[in-house]
Amino acid sequence: MFDEGQHARALHSLLSGEGPATLDAIIGRASDVIGVVDADFVIRYVNWTAPGLTREAVVGHSVFNLVPPGYADVAREAFEKVLKTARISSAIIKPE
Description:
- The chain has 96 residues and is mainly alpha-helical.
- The chain is 41% helix and 7% strand.
- It contains 4 helices and 2 strands, in the order H-H-E-E-H-H.
- It has a two-stranded antiparallel sheet.
- A hairpin with a 5-residue loop joins strand 1 (35-37) and strand 2 (43-46).
- The longest helix is centred in the last third of the chain and has 14 residues, at 72-85.
- It is globular, with a radius of gyration of 14 Å.
- The model has no long low-confidence stretch (mean pLDDT 83).
């Protein structure tokens, strides 16, 4: 099991240099969107985006830029739960 320092170093390694290409080779064609969001809620990696978005427009920006207006609190709660528990979380967001 990783401790926090090992986890941070492994994640940094995957997100720098040739790391994103390695992630793409492993999960780039997954049917689900798989991303990495840091503790400041900035998107560091995403395997693919929804139509109308590009990876370049998403990576390096706040995850809350993708959350419909009025749902930032719900999304923040879900992301904070993941950071606190290291377990999968979800939020139900139904844009009008």
